[in-house]
Structure formats: C-alpha cells, structure tokens
Write a structure and sequence with these properties.
Length: 496
C-alpha cells in the first residue's frame, strides 16, 4: 500500500472528503512512493474557516511574540535542514546539496521576517496642524493564500509564508501536488515553533482547491508562483473576485556574453545556471547570447564541461544533476531537442544520447548552437537541461533579442567592462539582472520579481514588497482637547 499524504488543518493532519488522489513519484527511481489527496471544495472551505478564526487571534499577538515564533522556527529549520532536504530530493529529484541550498534561501526569508517589529514601524507627523498629529500603521489582511510550483517546495512557500505570518495573517498553502510532503514538514515545524493552530494551513490539491481559494470571500490575497498561463489565470480570477494578487510566471532567461568576457568564468556560470536542478529553475539560464566573435570559444568551453557532470540519483553525494520531475515532462523536453534539430539548430551535445540510469526520469544535458528566435526551443519555456546559444553581431542586437522576448524574469551579462554592464542594466527590460552573476535571485531584504509575462500584478515577492503586499495601510489623524480646558483638575496649568 502506498503512503497517503493529506492536509494540515487546524494544527493536525486531516484526511479529505473528495476521494480523489494523485500519484507522487521518486523521479530518480521512477516509482510511485505515495498518493496525495486532492482537496474538495468542502475541504478547502473547512481549512479557510479554521484560518479565519486563527487570523482573528493572531493579529492581536504582540510583535515580540510573533518575532519569537519566527526565531524558534528559524532554529528548527536550521537544525532540521538535512532531514527536509532528503524529503525534497526524494520527491523532486534535485541533488541534496541543491535541496540544502533551496532551504538556505528560504531560511533567509524567515530571518528577514524576524525583523517584523522594525518592518512594521509606521510614520508619525507631530503637529501636522495645530494640535493635530497624523500617523500611519500597517495591519494584516486576514487570510492569505499561497499557491506554489513543484520546483521549490520549501523556498517558495517560505518566500510567502514567513512574511505573511510575521505581519499577522493566517497563511493557507496549496503546494504542488507533485512534491507535497515538504509542506507538511514545514507545518509541523511551525507548530513546534509555537505558532497557534490554524495560522499555517496546508491544503493539498489541484485546480479544484485553487479555484476555491481564488473565489472564496474570506481569502483576502493570493500569492502564486508557477507557469505563465496559470499565473495569468490566477491573476485574472483572483482580482475579479476582489483579491489582491501577485502571480509570478514562467521564464526564458538570457545570458549575454560580450567579446571581452572571461570565457572560462562565463562557461562555468552557464553550466551551473543552465543544468543545475536539471534546468527546472525559474531563474535557470536557457539562452546564451554570444556577441561578436566569442561564440565558438564559448560553445567549445561549455561543451568541454558537460561530460564531467555526473547524472544520477540526487541522494547520491557524487551526483551533479538529477532527473526531471515526471516521465511526461522528460519526454516533452526531449521533444524540444528533436524540434530544435529539425528546425536547423546545431546539436552540439544531445541529452537524449547520454548514458543514463535506466530507471527514473532522466535526460542528459543538451547544448544547441545557432538557435534562431523563431524556433520553438527559443520561444517556449522548456524547463529542462537544454541550453540554446544564439549568435548576435553586436550588443544592440543582443539587447533587442532580450527586450523582444515576452518573458522577463532574470538576465545576466558577462563582461569585464563596467560601462557596458551599467548600460545593460539601464537598457534591459527584465526584472532581475546579474552582472557576471548568472542567477541573480535577490537576497531576502530586496524583493523578487520579473516583468512582462513573468509577473502579473504590481507587487514583487518577499522583502519590502512582501511586507506591503500582506498588509494594508491605515492613517490616523488625531486631535485631543487641550488639557488646559479640562473640567477635571489634572494639575495642569490653565495658562501656559
Ligand atoms: P504550474 O503552473 O503547472 O503549477 C503551479 C501551481 O498551480 C501548482 O500548485 C499547481 O497545482 C497549480 N495549477 C496547475 N494547473 C492549474 C490550473 N489549471 N488551475 C489552477 N491551478 C493550477 O507550474 P509547475 O510546473 O509546478 O512549476 C514550474 C513553472 O513555475 C515554470 O513555468 C517556472 O518558470 C515557474 N516558476 C516561476 C518562478 C518565478 O519566480 N517566476 C519560480 C518558480 C517556478
């Protein structure tokens, strides 16, 4: 009998009522390890009702109590990183060191949120008019939902949940049904850290659960991370039901390599950023734009590095790259390689021909050269270990290629020229920029977000924008009667 993964409602594991299940796999072994329950409308309504009650209490918790819970959660997460990383690797497939890395990036967001007493400080203007003071405060929204993708089952829930909880909301997480166990581990740790029941809830599920969250009148805001078509749907449905929504979508991240770049540095960066986590990262580099005559040297340097990568079970410490999330996704990625070859790209390294473990959803690394912008390998988000090289004659041509792309999550430039890098940062229409840094995920005290089809809504995630997203501003204008006019003797001088 396979293991059953259920919901976390009101501080305990709860079985749902739908009778619907989805299989969960260990992608390195290609075997089903569990069934996850898919919540019904009734299950989600029950979860929201518990969150509504918890939110009412939690908003009254003092800032120091909230900070104390976050500090305790931070300690637990730190202490239990290795256990949690194993859970992530077993369901996602990424190598253990990468799972630890994802937890560390999530931990940064918890550490940021421990500063909530400082982050929620308002403003105060004394004597805005005679005897009148004006001040601002920020208050929680109530119940907020997070809908997360399979590729970061710990980090993305922490991008959202740490700030949502710190600011006094109850947070309902709907994790990906492909790797649902990490969310329950987080739930247990929140409880162990002293968070009251109902403030952190997990509903496992699919579209039915998502649609219930998007339309329920007691959900005030929705944070989403996932693919662009679903992000657009989440944004449109959530906002049309009166909710605040931030919906982060897919990506096609370009790395520009100028002719003066350190080619070895650029090739090392391209290999780790394109093939790390088997390319299943929203900030993965999927296109290298080689400018001028750097193309041949760059392609040779990347191709020379690929045979050195060990592909296998992520639980093995010698593995550099694990499997893809499902067999269907692996086949879809392989289909893009075939389409690239048919449309005229040069297949320098073909991942379909790699020597791979026979079980599991593996695909080798692929390097395509002379890719043009009309090919499907260029236009579509592949989300696999495929790097396309596009040749550009000049910096302006490279820039035009990036700015014409509908995705605009991250990008990077490799050069030794500070002026060129500065001009790129000014010109490029993308939300996050790396200068000789291939994956420029902002630290937790800045905010994360792309532009164009990579983000729907006007609020980036975590950091200062996360604090604003999960709170509403209130401004108080106050006047007190002059104590000198009091009819009670306050011992206050009648004239001053
Ligand atoms: P996905 O869009 O398939 O799923 C994301 C979430 O939406 C999951 O919880 C899923 O259950 C739910 N969902 C899926 N289909 C739905 C539907 N029809 N209606 C309602 N809900 C639905 O994404 P994924 O495959 O889990 O993750 C990979 C994608 O996420 C990639 O496109 C990647 O670029 C993107 N991503 C973006 C960022 C970012 O920061 N911009 C970060 C990580 C991942």
């Amino acid at each position: 009998m396979t293991n059953r993964i259920s919901h976390w409602i009101d501080g305990r594991l709860v079985s749902g009522t739908s009778g619907r299940l989805a299989p969960v796999f260990n992608p390195a072994l290609g075997v089903q390890t569990a069934d996850v329950e898919l919540a019904s409308v009734t299950d989600v309504n029950t979860a929201i009702a518990s969150a509504v009650a918890a939110a009412r209490e939690w908003r009254s918790a003092s800032l120091s109590r909230r900070a104390a819970v976050l500090f305790a959660f931070r300690e637990l997460l730190h202490a239990r990183t290795d256990e949690l990383a194993k859970i992530v690797t077993a369901e996602h497939g990424k190598v253990l060191s990468d799972a630890v890395g994802e937890i560390s990036r999530g931990l940064e967001n918890v550490e940021f949120a421990t500063g909530v007493p400082n982050l929620l400080k308002g403003g105060y203007s004394e004597q805005a008019a005679t005897g009148v003071d004006v001040y601002s405060i920020r208050q929680p929204l109530g119940v907020v939902a997070g809908i997360t993708p399979f590729n970061f089952p710990v980090m993305v829930p922490l991008w959202m949940g740490a700030n949502a909880i710190a600011t006094g909301n109850a947070f309902v997480l709907k994790p990906s049904e492909k790797d649902p166990s990490a969310a329950l581990f987080l739930a247990q740790m929140w409880q162990d850290a002293g968070l009251p029941d109902g403030v952190f809830t997990v509903v496992q599920g699919d579209k039915e659960a998502v649609d219930t969250l998007l339309t329920h009148p007691d959900v005030a805001a929705v944070s989403f991370v996932g693919s662009t078509p679903i992000a657009r749907y989440i944004y449109e449905t959530g906002t049309s039901h009166g909710k605040r929504v931030q919906a982060l979508g897919g990506a096609k991240n370009h790395m520009v390599v100028l002719p003066d770049a350190d080619v070895d540095m650029a090739a090392d960066a391209a290999v780790s950023a394109a093939y790390g986590a088997a390319g299943e990262r929203c900030m993965a580099i999927s296109v290298a734009v080689a400018v001028g005559d750097v193309g041949d040297a760059l392609v040779d340097a990347i191709a020379a590095r690929l045979p050195k990568l060990t592909i296998g079970n992520g639980a093995d410490p010698d593995t550099d790259m694990g499997p893809l999330i499902t067999a269907e996704h692996r086949d879809k990625v392989a289909g893009y390689i075939a389409a690239g070859a048919e449309s005229g790209a040069t297949v320098v390294v073909d991942g379909r021909q790699a020597d791979l473990p026979s079980d599991g959803f593996f695909l080798g690394t692929t390097l395509l050269d002379h890719v043009s912008t009309d090919m499907s390998v260029y236009t579509d988000e592949i989300f696999g270990p495929v790097l396309s090289v596009v040749r550009a004659g000049t910096y302006d041509e490279a820039l035009a290629i990036i700015n014409a792309n509908s995705y605009a999550n991250g990008t990077a430039i490799f050069t030794r020229d500070g002026g060129a890098a500065r001009q790129f940062q000014f010109d490029v229409e993308v939300g996050m920029i790396g200068i000789n840094v291939p994956i420029p995920v902002p630290v937790a005290y800045y905010s994360f977000g792309g532009w164009k089809d990579s983000l729907f809504g006007d609020s980036h995630m975590y950091g200062p924008e996360g604090i604003n997203f999960y709170t509403r501003g209130k401004v108080v204008t106050s006047r007190w009667p002059d104590p000198a006019t009091s009819t009670v003797d306050l011992g206050f001088p009648r004239t001053r």
